[in-house]
Amino acid sequence: MQTTRQRLILKLLLVLILPPLACTCFIVALSSNHRRTELLSEADRELAAYVTVLRTTLPRLAAQMDRPSLTALIEQLAQHERVHGIALYNGQCHALSRSEDLNLVAAEIDGLVCDGRKARPEQHRTVLLGAREVLVRTEPISLQAEVGLVAVTYDLTVVRAIIDAGVKRTIMHGVLIALCMAGVALLIARSLGGALGTLVQASERVASGDLAVRVKPPNLLELGRLGLAFNQMTAGLAAAQRELLAGESRRRELEQRLRHAQALRVIGQVAASLAHEIASPLSTILGWSRLAADDPSLSAEFRDQTNIISTQCERITRIVQRLLSVSRFPAGERVPVRLSDVAMEVVTFLRSECKVRGITIGTELADGTPLVYAERDCC
Q1: d(CA 331, CA 106)
Q2: Cα gap 101→86, rounded to integer Å
Q3: Do the Cβ atoms of 315 and 273 come closer than 8 Å?
Q4: Which segments of the chain does DSSP mark as H helices, in order?
Q5: pLDDT tens digits along 214-266
Q6: What is the mean pLDDT of each run of 10 residues along the chain (379 residues)?
Q7: Looking at CB atoms within 10 Å, which of 174, 236, 267, 274 has the fewest?
Q8: Contacts for 109 with CB less than 8 Å, ≥ 6 apart
């Protein structure tokens, strides 16, 4: 039962925890890309507005300032919360002034803005300057003015921080949901584990052939109905097994009767052959014994012996006739028989054998012995 509960806990954990975690990963990937696109669009709009202001004001200010003053102004304007750096170029794409952060990556920013000594077309894109990701926007001002091109880089550190915060928040929500699902799985396993373990063990016993097993239906959700259905199933299987055993017993009985009938058929064939072989000599013996019994010239003892021979020959004839009809399961013919007469026949039949062995037979029969219905030759 403990193993069943552990398996149930593991399966429930996999079923209830993996989907939230998978959905969390999918949402993180999808929302991160979507949020990044939104934030970059917003940053690009903000940067475009800032560059528009610079295009309007810088040409007049640059005409009135010397180079150090212009550099100081550029540095001051670059202190904007989101602005990373500002660079000014003349019509031949020579750098007039750069803010401090862009001076550190002068070669990179100049390569982005200028193509040799020719200014690149208006552009805005995300690049990596040094170790910092920035959004670069370059726009021409006027080829006749001293300042012909302005380049502004926008710091995307805040964008990355916002995206990272959203990812962390989504992951925390996913983990919280997974933990809640784990608690639900443990609660379900605790509630259902014992009942399911009992049903599993009972099913294993039924599979091994024990149809007498029964379970106590638990009072939990639909498991009570499941337990009742299980008991009904085992009861039905037990009844079917009893019917099968009864049918098997009947089948064996029929097979036994069939073998008996076949044996009787063989006996009948042997009896018919035997009767045919015995009938002729037996009839001769019977005829001569009757003639001898009726001959007054013979001694009384000899006639008695011939009577015994006649009687036994008749008995053999009746036995042979019964052998001929044994395959038809005949009922023996019952006739009124006096037991004293049967006893005297037996004594007369055995007297000569007893005389040879020196045995004396004495009989004492009561008068008026009652008649009974019996098969005379079986007595």
Answers
A1: 131
A2: 9
A3: no
A4: 2-64, 67-77, 100-103, 106-113, 157-207, 223-293, 300-324, 339-356
A5: 777 666 555 666 677 777 888 888 888 888 888 888 888 888 888 887 877 77
A6: 63 74 80 81 83 78 76 79 80 80 82 70 74 82 68 82 84 82 73 66 76 69 67 82 87 87 74 71 78 78 81 79 58 73 76 78 80 68
A7: 236
A8: 85, 87, 98, 102, 129, 136, 151, 153
Cα separation, 59 vs 73, in Å, equals 13
Length of the chain: 379
Per DSSP, the three-state class of 147 is: coil
Six-digit token pair at 229? 């259905």
41, 154 in Cβ contact below 8 A?
no
**The amino acid at 336:** P
Give the dihedral sign, CA 37/43/49/53: negative
Q: How does pLDDT run across 133-191, given as a tens digit for each residue?
A: 888 888 787 655 567 788 888 888 878 888 888 888 888 888 888 788 777 777 766 66
The letter for the amino acid at 199 is L
The tokens of 2 are what? 């403990």
Query: Which pTM value belongs to this model?
Result: 0.43
Distance CA 315, CA 309 (A): 10
Q: Which two tokens stand for residue 301?
A: 């003892």
Structure-block tokens of residue 146: 């001293």
> Locate tokens 């002729």: which residue?
280
DSSP helix/strand/coil, 296: coil
**220: helix, strand or coil:** coil
C-alpha 364/C-alpha 358 separation (Å) is 20
Query: Would you put residue 358 in left (φ > 0), alpha (ψ -120 to 50) or beta?
Result: left
Cα Rg of the chain (Å, integer): 62
